[in-house]
Amino acid sequence: MDYAKIAAEARALQDATAHDAARRRKQEEASEAFFKAMEKCVYEEVDKANPELRRMNLLTGDRERGVEVSPKQFQAQCRLLFGRNTACEVNLDTTHALIDVEMTGEPDNKGEVKRHRIEFAVSTTEMGVVAHRIASGAMIAGPFGTRQVAEILVVGIIRGHFE
User: Fold this and answer.
1) Taking a C-beta distance cutoff of 8 angstroms, is the pair 30, 125 a contact?
2) Residue 41 reports pLDDT greater than 90
3) I need a labelling partner for 88 at 20 to 30 A (CA). Which of 43, 99, 110, 112 fits?
């Protein structure tokens, strides 16, 4: 038996596993930091949007409080509300570095509530940590910074759909 060769293979496997675990940990930390910064930007965008909605007399009825950031159920979650029927839930999947966004809007004339979904993949590039909008696993737009993702979310909930 060539134990030197077997030991070298075992060492290479151990090193590759350790390297992969460190890379995943770094990616998780980067996506968490991106999400927290994005969440801060969401609050700032809501603070910009509500006075304009009020100025245009759009905050009436169940929307009188404007766009709100509601209490979250999980640490890696951000929830937006606009009136009684429009809600946007933003969740971070740190394992896959994905931001999953699902919005339920106003019922249509048949009483059916439409759901709108978008996803962002978070990655580290030469420009820093960015997000790309994805569909069916493929990048379709981006890169976006935290402020741009926050704008997409706030504009989306006001319009009732994502572009």
Assistant:
1) no
2) yes
3) 110
